[in-house]
Amino acid sequence: MKNIKYIITIAVSVFALTFANAQSTSDTNFRKPVSETLKKIETVFNVTINDDRGLLKGKELDYADWRIEPGNLAISLTNILAPFELMYFKQPDGTYIIRKYENHKVSVDKGKERLFYLESLYSTKEEWEKRKTELKACMITSFGLEKAPPMPKSKPLLTPKRIYKDYSVENIALEILPGVYATGSIYKPYPLNKKAAVILTPDGHFGDGRYRKDEQYRCAIMAKMGAIVVSYDLFAWGESLLQFPEETHRNSIASTVQVLTGIRFLDYLATVKNADMSRVGVTGGSGGGSHTMFLAAIDDRVKVSAPVVMVSSHFSGGCPCESGRGVHLCGNGTNNAEISAMMAPKPQLIVSDGKDWTLAVPELEFPFIQRTYELYGKKDLVENAHFAKEGHDFGVSKRMALYPFMTKYLNLDLNKVKNDKGEIDESTCVIEPKEKLFVFGDKGENLPKNALKDINKLYEMFGEKNLKVYEVKK
């Protein structure tokens, strides 16, 4: 009986497909609903395609079935979806989902194809060095850094120090462009009576910005270990909002300002007594991970890098503050894995997890980056700390992987932060309320009078025009 039902089901399915084809002729340009053609693709290639967001609803296509390329699922799906600016993503379970086209995001298999292509471009250190030089020059031009006005000679604004056990904190506003202030906090070993390494921590898109607990823990611990640590706000986040409204964070110029902020904080730190500029590290998570990679690729002063939950061959950052300047078009197409590889042969820790776009790092991006390090005979200088059961954060396990790495390559003292059991103990750090981390006062009352508040004039500094139009908020 079951066999009869099965045969009837197959017969009905075949009839339905045949009937559908019968209604699609040259009289209608073989026009069909896209959803029907994708059902046919499912049958032909024995796959499952999910339109869980209803993106195909009401969409029809001329010559739909003719666009199916026998034996090539990828081309078939592209032929059907591209006219609607849609794309497909292969999931870990082998199914496919439909999504709107995004320039910063492709499927994991597409990322893998790109890495194979990039590997074909260089097989020697000399070939890689040539490409690296071209990528670096293109990135600098894409960000517009060569057009940046000189840093003003004004002194940084510093708040009084708060002194805690083995470290101190003071807030800073650095005028990186005329009237444009980068805001952050400087954590230093206390007392600071000898040369100390320097570590920058560009902020990411996590809630509460640089005021959150995990960033304060990270900065305080590394200061106790013997480093001068600077944590700084994203553009149009935190105290930067006193100058530029939050919607301007999604202007492409945000990425330029954020890269420039890192460079100019290093310029400033080079003037600070006891700052050892021969030992410079940078680490950040998410969007801060992007800017960790960018700064390490562009500024040769960076000696140790630790990008967290951002190294990916198939995702380059959904925010224009990361991907708005087209740096991933450099070299006729690059990605974060190759930009990360530009750190070679200097020490680098790549931190990844199993629940975001870094899920495939151990099998995909890390071997690709190791290959580049191997061109220098320095394969052991790049490491991957992967947390398969964790998600997109800079949580405690990720920090515990970071501290020994920074200690090893920046000559810090890990024993300074260990308890009687030999464990790294973050509980000795003081978590300050965000009001204590403000440099301009509780209500921004100390914002300098020359502070720029016009995004258009910021663009003009770089010889550009702001083409992004916002709706007026009522």
Would you mind describing this structure in some detail?
With 474 residues, the protein is of the alpha/beta class. The protein has two domains: 28-101, 3-Layer(bab) Sandwich (Phage tail protein beta-alpha-beta fold); 129-462, Rossmann fold (3-Layer(aba) Sandwich), CATH 3.40.50.1820. Helix content is 33%, strand content 18%. The protein has 13 helices and 15 strands. It has helices at residues 2-23, 34-45, 73-81, 108-119, 125-143, 213-224, 253-269, 287-298, 320-323, 336-341, 365-374, 396-410, 455-461, and strands spanning 32-33, 49-50, 60-61, 86-90, 96-100, 157-158, 162-164, 167-177, 180-189, 196-202, 227-232, 275-285, 304-308, 348-353, 382-387. The strands form three sheets. Strands 6, 7, 8, 9, 10, 11, 12, 13, 14 and 15 form a ten-stranded mixed beta sheet that branches. α2 (34-45) packs antiparallel against α3 (73-81) and α6 (213-224) packs parallel to α12. The chain is globular and about 85 Å long. The termini are far apart.
